[in-house]
Automatic annotation (TrEMBL):
Natural source organism: Eiseniibacteriota bacterium
Residue span(s) of domain FRG: 22-133
Pfam families: FRG
Biased composition (Basic and acidic residues): 146-157
TM region positions: none
Record protein name field: FRG domain-containing protein
Length: 301
């Protein structure tokens, strides 16, 4: 993977994101370890090497069964059940279950936070550089799979009813008579070749996106805000068609963050409100923020 940028300070990162990245939709992912240091860009489930001993069918079956078991336990823990496997898998990912989803964000400062929040060390206890990866391949979004699949709707005249007493019936309420030629009822028009009974039955309708286990390419999924963390972190999930393979080099740009800059970048992010208590708006975030302010940076409250 090419590394065109090595960042030495906070301002250099801002300039790089603003001026040096290609045009188009971009997603960011911060990692405390570099791709070259052995931390490949792949989903969490793809990091379990022993699963590679299984056949594709066995791995696929395992993913589905694990999600089914997880979903069966959701009833006692959530207020709203997921509407499909995409939402169920997003909830599972959020709670730490290994899935074929990868965490990304639309906010480059959030990605920078995850890259520098903790400075890792190598086997000889030397501090290591981190990185922000920019997804530039522009995969389709989940909404692209469903946007054009709604049933067609067209206005038609209502021939089943006639106005009472030759009028609209609204006069006694002080409402002007509606022009029947301009205010017509809407009716569902079956799509060409579709069975009308099937369109009337939502459970039988074929107009839906494939499940995350049936996609033919990587897909960007904006999950519902099941947690304040997802909203605070501008979270985006990348559903990977081949979860045991790393993303290709052409899919991403690597922005290396030099370890010597980590401390200063952490302080700057804290000043700009992109730190623990903002990105984790719960007790865990408050505890992490206090730990950083008081014990790690030896600062003041």
């Amino acid at each position: 993977m090419s590394t065109p940028f090595e960042i030495e300070c906070f301002e250099e990162y801002l300039t790089t994101v603003r001026n040096e990245l290609p045009d188009g939709r971009k997603y960011f992912r911060g990692q405390t370890k570099l791709f070259s240091a052995g931390y490949a860009l792949k989903p969490s489930i793809g990091r379990y090497g022993h699963l590679l001993d299984k056949s594709f069918a066995e791995r696929d079956s395992l993913e589905r069964e694990v999600l089914d078991v997880f979903t069966n336990h959701l009833v006692a823990h959530v207020q709203h059940l997921p509407r499909n496997k995409w939402e169920a898998l997003a909830i599972a990912q959020h709670h730490g279950l290994p899935t074929r989803f990868m965490d990304w964000t639309t906010n480059p400062l959030v990605a920078l936070y995850f890259a520098v929040r903790e400075t890792k060390t190598d086997d000889e206890d030397n501090p290591m550089n981190s990185a922000v990866y920019v997804l530039i391949s522009d995969p389709p979004r989940y909404t692209d799979l469903t946007r054009d699949q709604h049933q067609a709707v067209r206005p038609v005249k209502d021939l089943a009813t006639t106005p009472a007493r030759g009028e609209s019936g609204y006069e006694e309420y002080g409402v002007d008579r509606l022009d029947s030629e301009e205010h017509e009822e809407a009716s569902v028009e079956p799509t060409e070749g579709a069975d009308s009974e099937e369109l009337n039955d939502p459970a039988a309708s074929p107009l839906q996106a494939p499940s995350p286990f049936e996609i033919t390419e990587n897909v960007v999924y904006h999950p519902p805000h099941i947690s304040p963390r997802l909203r605070a972190q501008d979270s985006v999930l990348l559903a990977c068609q081949k979860p045991f393979d790393a993303l290709e080099d052409r899919d991403c740009i690597e922005i290396v963050i030099r370890h010597a800059a980590h401390d200063d970048i952490r302080r700057r992010l804290d000043q700009y409100g992109v730190f623990d208590r903002q990105l984790f708006p719960d007790l865990d975030g408050i505890a992490k923020w206090l730990r950083y302010r008081v014990f790690e940076s030896k600062g003041e409250l």
